[in-house]
Amino acid sequence: MAVVVMKFGGTSVANIERIRNVARHVKREADAGNQVAVVVSAMAGVTNQLVSWVREASLLHDAREYDAVVATGEQVTAGLLAITLQSIGLQARSWQGWQIPITTTPAHGAARITGIDGAEIRRRLDTGEVAVITGFQGIEPDRNRIATLGRGGSDTSAVAIAVALKADVCDIYTDVDGVYTTDPRIVPKARRLPKVSYEEMLEMASLGSKVLQTRSVELAMVNRMTVRVLSSFTAPEAMEPARMDRLEDIGTIVCDEDEIVESQVVSGIAYVKDEAKVTLIKVEDKPGVASRIFGPLADANINVDMIIQSVTPDGMHTDMTFTVQGSELPRTLETLKAAKKEIGDFEIQSSADVAKISVIGIGMRSHAGVAAKMFSALAAKGINILAITTSEIKISVLIDAAYAELAVRTLHSVYGLDAD
Amino acid sequence: MAVVVMKFGGTSVANIERIRNVARHVKREADAGNQVAVVVSAMAGVTNQLVSWVREASLLHDAREYDAVVATGEQVTAGLLAITLQSIGLQARSWQGWQIPITTTPAHGAARITGIDGAEIRRRLDTGEVAVITGFQGIEPDRNRIATLGRGGSDTSAVAIAVALKADVCDIYTDVDGVYTTDPRIVPKARRLPKVSYEEMLEMASLGSKVLQTRSVELAMVNRMTVRVLSSFTAPEAMEPARMDRLEDIGTIVCDEDEIVESQVVSGIAYVKDEAKVTLIKVEDKPGVASRIFGPLADANINVDMIIQSVTPDGMHTDMTFTVQGSELPRTLETLKAAKKEIGDFEIQSSADVAKISVIGIGMRSHAGVAAKMFSALAAKGINILAITTSEIKISVLIDAAYAELAVRTLHSVYGLDAD
User: Fold this and answer.
1) What average pLDDT does the segment A275-290 reach?
2) Residues 6 or more apart in contact with residue A360 via CB below 8 angstroms
């Protein structure tokens, strides 16, 4: 018997039929003797409707009122799931963030959870009652107002609630059946990873994998909460109830690297196609030039990703290359031109047709030659590397977008990730 | 300057364009220096969607979860109106029932308000902030759960909030521009009443006028809160801001009879067409017969309206006639047949084609001959009276439904209510 937090996203609760399916997943766990808290998102489409009403009312809107409106989406799902659970014979009640309470910072629309009082819910779990909790929201205690965590925040809610309830596992149900070595649409031989470390999952999340929200992985890592990624579309009766000694039978477990016995050097290949590259040529190389370039971009809320600086042969100028999201390229160029007075004279080159390919693996720390293998494999296919950045457990390269799929397939094979 | 509570129903806030219109009504009041609290219903259609989801999830559902789901409708409107008010330069914030708090009894779906803490809202009204409050709901404090007042409860919310805020007037905006002497669709010469007493309004509400919820009128009467019925579809700029010395310039004021200087003998003619008449013939006349007839009907939740008992010439039997809602006739007949053992032998007659016509007026108390005038006017048109009931300020007759419109027009004219 275990305490299990189950989280279901918007597509898993998109209509009453799917909510019934979720209820059967919950019943499977409860029938096996597990204590269950369920965290739910808004029904797919509901949040978009609410957001579009807010925007129609006013493009410049009070974030507190936005939260009051948008938070109703999860409240509806929680009530409907509680009703559905009761209709199949389970004890259940819905909980809104303020009723628990889940307290947050006052940063409406992007609030962080500051505390969860899990005592009453724990007491009720002991009586066999299922707790159905609204994801994505809490209460900002100073002003007694509902605050949302920002889009995708329901994963974070689930992990935080699992920590507060001292749960054994936090099961995140999505529309995929686990974390893969790479995108199966590009590489049919991609394999499901039975286990992946928090650090690897973090890199994957920040590199475009949409399986788990970055913040939820950080929170799980700090609290050493075991997270599992599962598919809500697998028939509820075809899955085994959660058993702590057999968690890895299904889905992907995200856990501490110590718990991964046979760790591979490389566990996954990630890619981002929607990148744009900007190069400022012959910028005068004097102290503070980087802040004069990137300050205005930050002020304009443009997220800069890779940055490579190189010095020209004359020793007095520098070339500065960086990448931004493809859709941000026009604004980036405008912002730079407007800041020419501060930056000094420069030529500018840009390209929207670049892709970032990343090789991720905790084993890199102890294995030499991982990067060299990557570069030679790409060279063998005639793929030119435009820029490189590395971290302790990741190597990213920028290449011509036309070669993205070829590069992913090549690296997936070279690092021995292809399924048999 | 006055403290004004403004209430807007579902059709008045059905979409963002109409919410903008509501915001202009509010701005008119605020610009004139009035302090404003606004009470809103769910956008038309939203509550129906929520209720249909609940029913699809389970026909037998937990009333507490039903409330958690359905209460979100008003929460959305309150947030959207606050945003819209801010966009036209007003300070505003939304308030959900639990934030104020508005406390209620635990009767989920049909809760009664037990208390409202108006202190914080009063403080903010003094700073010029507009309070936008969810109608129809509060919090049941023992279990910390949202409770709804039942359909139409937003009128009651508005009056209760007006009382708590010691408001000068509670303006109820609807889709009609006041209370009329009768239905203008039947009598084109119907007139808007500038003032009507609580008692008369209560009779009109219970006799089918849908302008105000019965409970809201009762609450206003007990607390002597002045209520005004106005149209939200009148252009906001074409109306004068509320001024306590000139309230009667527009709409209908519902107030204490003492405040009505020139009261008329009859102030309105009401009718209900959807009535059915049931007569039990030759029921044995022994003690307790009425309770043996009406007990089973009450148990079956069938609302009995008029009751007339007459004794037959033999002195040992009685004929019992009563009316029910037309749609309840089949269930009524079934229930009576099932209870034949307890009631004793009887014959039964029923008719679904009857209408109830009522003449209402506080002046009846001091004027003789009001009833006689009614009966002779109907007789002159050849309309047969099937049953009569009276109260201090009302006379109702049951007639053949085919004559309903003729009766209403005749009485409207006879009592001098026709417009010039």
Assistant:
1) 86
2) A200, A203, A204, A207, A266, A267, A268, A269, A270, A393, A394
Supply the mean pLDDT for chain A: 92
The b-or-e profile of A250-270 (16+ CB within 10 A means b, else e) is bbbbbbebeebeebbbbbbbb
Q: How far apart are the first and last CA of chain B?
A: 36
Contacts of B383 (CB under 8 A, 6+ apart): B399, B400, B403, B406, B407, B410
- Give Cα B413 to chain centroid, integer Å: 25
Nearest of A400, A77, A24 to residue A236 by alpha carbon:
A24
Residue from the list A58, A83, A98 with its beta carbon closest to the beta carbon of B62: A83
pLDDT, averaged across chain B: 92
In this predicted complex, what is the ipTM? 0.83
Strand order in the sheet with B195-197: B92-95, B130-134, B35-40, B3-8, B169-174, B227-231, B252-255, B195-197
For residue B126, give every residue at least 6 positions away whose Cβ sits within 8 Å of its Cβ, in sequence order, or none.
B35
Q: Which of B68, B80, B145 sits opposite A57 (nearest CB)?
A: B80
What pTM value is reported for the model? 0.86
Q: Do A79 and B66 touch (CB under 8 A)?
A: yes
Residues 6+ apart with CB under 8 A from A37: A3, A4, A5, A6, A121, A125, A130, A131, A132, A133, A161, A162, A165, A167
User: Measured between beta carbons, which residues in chain B are less than 8 angstroms from residue A80?
Assistant: 53-54, 57, 65, 69
Please check whether the two domains, A3-256 and A268-414, share a CATH topology: no
CB contact under 8 A, B145 and A69: no
Interface test with A, best of B50, B60, B83, B100 (most A CBs within 10 A): B83
**Fold topology of B268-414:** VC0802-like (3.30.2130)
What is the per-residue pLDDT for B152?
A: 65
Query: Do the chains contact at B68 and A145, CB–CB below 8 Å?
Result: no
Whole-number Å distance between alpha carbons of B158 and B135: 7
| Architecture of the structural domain at B3-259 | 3-Layer(aba) Sandwich (3.40)
Q: A3-256 maps to which CATH number?
A: 3.40.1160.10
CA atoms of B16 and A58, how far apart (whole Å): 10
